[in-house]
């Protein structure tokens, strides 16, 4: 849950012993905001039925904290303080603004007579908070929004990031992110998207959108599409936190646990994925640096995903299958002990559940490890020549995989040409440097097999 960040917050603020009281208070405000803002916005949206107004009220509470905490000290329960302040301002605004007269009547006499604000002094019912958070997740990831808008709005509302932080993470102008968020709110209002959790077929469709957004955020942090840095750990952390929140809010959904498992295990490799600024691919990583706690958490989430799927009489979903592939890598103490046959079989299942050229490319890598590079190269070339392979035109990992397989076959000149082509296609500078290094004669593991 989001509130699990509390102990980390206290220790993080406390380690800055040399900071002034004002500095510590401001750092506390920043940390609390990241952790508690989704709950505050969700609770306010339930009251005012308008996501944009809810966020403005939450921002008012943030401003109040910045003004008062440095002078008065950080409250004992900072999250509850923010919620109480924001809700009181919501009541004040409803009373002041004639356009909210109808909503005021709907809220009932308890708010009008001032009974509501007294109740706000007490922490909200945890079950109500969870319901509000779940509603907010489905609103932020509504399919009526573009993929880019869903990502930006999710990071703003559920990740607690500022527009500047989102812009820097995705290497786009801050104005672009701000416009996406504003347009997203307008779209939600125009389409009258209700603040609710859908059920039945609608829920399944919407959940796919939610999981996709979290997955996209993690992937951008795990292997940045552009810029100087190979990874953006902050995005990985935000996505993993969101996945854990979803697991707590939706414990009976197999794919929620499948995605959480996948992200836990992928995140376990972070410390081993770079050597200085240089990327280190999967088969070259020092597995002693993999985070065993995250791996165990990933295994546990995978077990929950499998149990939930069995309870529904369903086969494993795409995220659970990807998590199982990641778990197979994690179980190998060294690369030579990787069960590539099991990985190839899992990719076969994934190709049925979620067919895509990228899945086929990764399956070819696994087949190349099981049956040899010639078999893998044959599959890659057949894929590239197929109608589905047209989607991989301009995808840098296609020539990268070919280069790796050609290197293993001793066809060095052809491999160097493929690595050079891959380097020209990627927009990530660290990855480009790695590919150019391989083009000059260095060897290494295939990028498509994961890093």
Automatic annotation (TrEMBL):
Recorded GO MF terms: DNA binding; sigma factor activity
UniProt entry tagged with the keyword Transcription regulation: yes
RNA polymerase sigma-70 region domain boundaries: 37-97
Ranges for domain DUF6596: 206-305
Biological processes, Gene Ontology terms: DNA-templated transcription initiation
Entry annotated with the keyword Transcription: yes
Cited Pfam families: DUF6596, Sigma70_r2, Sigma70_r4_2
UniProtKB keywords: Sigma factor, Transcription, Transcription regulation
Domain RNA polymerase sigma factor 70 region 4 type span(s) in chain numbering: 139-188
InterPro entries reported for this sequence: DUF6596, RNA_pol_sigma-70_dom, RNA_pol_sigma70_r2, RNA_pol_sigma70_r4_t2, RNA_pol_sigma_r2, RNA_pol_sigma_r3/r4-like, WH-like_DNA-bd_sf
Superkingdom of origin organism: Bacteria
Gene3D superfamilies named among the record's database cross-references: 1.10.1740.10, Winged helix-like DNA-binding domain superfamily/Winged helix DNA-binding domain
Sequence similarity: Belongs to the sigma-70 factor family. ECF subfamily.
Name of this protein: RNA polymerase, sigma subunit, ECF family
